[in-house]
Design goal:
About 25% of the residues lie in helices and about 25% in strands. It has about 350 residues and is of the alpha/beta class. The protein has 2 domains: about 190 residues, Quinone Oxidoreductase, Chain A, domain 1 (Alpha-Beta Complex); about 130 residues, NAD(P)-binding Rossmann-like Domain (Rossmann fold). The strands form 4 sheets. Strands 3, 4, 5, 8, 9, 16 and 17 form a 7-stranded mixed sheet that branches. Strands 12-11-10-13-14-15 form a 6-stranded parallel sheet, covered by helices on one side. A two-stranded antiparallel ribbon has the order 1-2. The longest helix has 14 residues. The protein is globular and about 60 Å long. Bound molecules: NADP nicotinamide-adenine-dinucleotide phosphate and zinc ion (2 copies). The site of one zinc ion has 5 residues, from loops. One zinc ion (ZN) binds next to helix 2.
Length: about 350
């Protein structure tokens, strides 16, 4: 299938138009016309090789929504015209205990990412969603509730599930004092979900200008961390902290904010290792944990939850020629709160 895309040809160049061929539609595949694709900070980390050597040309994009345009002969899950979403991975081994449990993101043999990787045949380069169309095995795509704005749904496919999953795992509920570090793409969805689950939500942000928006999204409190000394006033205050910050920081200052038995979940992945003060963990039986996106069943559950609670991402819809600027604005924390590419402009 002929595809039009926006591609990074090298880590430093601007994104440019690329024409290429996607694989043919197999019996278990569906093809989709892409409507919108979100820009995740992980796209930027990968294009700029902050996570190590990458494959170029790279077509980023793993927050994809569109409409099914064709279905293979064995497809039962979708029909032509359905709204469909594709997230951070397009395949996995299907047989390991993680895959069988629906936790394909933790596939013991390695999930297949949506881009910047080889498909399971070991030779086809996976190209992502900064494109006009896509082909995916039906098992790795999800249905989108019809009552939500489609542009606002795109970021749910990564930003949404990545914060929904740890909030569920660590049991966000009424009375749970929850903090979200960083009010960007992931962070703002964390606020919306934690609020919808009834938790008491505090935003820890280094951008003083984001306070009104945070409260509007459902935060109960806003702490500006521009002067990091402010954290001293909030020691032992939270049961759960989600760290969505995309930059290096001193994690020990934040571990001190955990109450007894509290958990700090690391989600942001700037690429450099943390130095953890073990004393901060011992004192208060605290935990530091990690979490990576979510499996296909939970992705569908999250989208259905959004349909029921009318939750979408706050987006700035952009055209293809604005992507370089959007990257720079995202790195500068100047994003409200997710850039989404209108695929018709590619
Ligand atoms: P984003 O939209 O750029 O948001 C990151 C936020 O971090 C910024 O808006 C800013 O919030 C804060 N921040 C940035 N630089 C900072 C600095 N120097 N000091 C303090 N705070 C800073 O990024 P995103 O798309 O939400 O992604 C966040 C991170 O999660 C990225 O590293 C991404 O790769 C990672 N990620 C992980 C997973 C996973 O599965 N674990 C999935 C997706 C993404 P304030 O202005 O409010 O401070
Ligand atoms: Zn992402
Ligand atoms: Zn597996």
């Amino acid at each position: 299938m002929k595809s039009r895309a926006l591609a990074a040809m090298s880590p430093s160049a601007s994104l440019t138009r690329l024409d290429f061929e996607r694989r043919d539609l197999g019996p278990h595949d569906v093809s989709l016309e892409i409507s919108f694709t979100g820009i995740c900070h992980s796209d930027i980390h990968q294009v700029r090789q902050e996570w190590g050597p990458a494959i170029f040309p790279m077509v980023p994009g793993h927050e994809i929504v569109g409409t099914v345009s064709a279905v293979g002969s064995k497809v039962t899950k979708f029909t032509i015209g359905d709204l469909i979403g594709v997230g951070v991975f397009i395949d996995s081994c299907r047989t390991c205990s993680s895959c069988v449990a629906g936790l394909q993101q933790y596939c013991e043999n390695g999930m297949t990412g949506t881009y910047n990787t080889l498909e399971r045949d070991g030779k086809t380069v996976a190209y992502g969603g900064y494109s006009n169309n896509f082909i995916i095995n039906q098992d790795y795509a999800v249905h989108i509730p019809a009552n939500l704005s489609l542009a606002g749904v795109a970021p749910l496919l990564c930003a949404g599930i990545t914060v929904y999953s740890p909030l569920k795992k660590w049991g966000a509920k009424p009375g749970m004092r929850t903090a979200v570090m960083g009010l960007g793409g992931l962070g703002h969805m964390g606020v919306k979900f934690a609020h919808a689950m009834g938790a008491e939500v505090t935003v820890l942000s280094h951008s003083p200008t984001k306070e009104a928006d945070a409260l509007e999204m459902g935060a109960d409190h806003f702490v500006c961390t521009k002067d990091i000394a402010v954290l001293k006033e909030h020691q032992k205050s939270f049961d759960l902290i989600l760290n969505t910050v995309s930059a290096d920081l001193d994690i020990n200052l934040y571990l001190d904010l955990l109450a007894l038995d509290g958990t700090l979940v690391v989600i942001g992945l700037p690429g450099n290792p943390y130095e953890v003060n073990i004393g901060a963990l011992l004192n208060g039986r605290r935990r530091i944990a990690g979490s990576m996106i979510g499996g296909i069943p939970e992705l569908q559950e999250m989208l259905d939850f959004c349909g029921q609670h009318q939750i979408v991402s706050d987006v700035e819809v952009i055209s293809a020629d604005y992507v370089d600027t959007a990257y720079d604005r995202t790195v500068a924390s100047d994003v409200k709160y997710r850039f989404v590419i209108d695929a018709s402009t590619i």
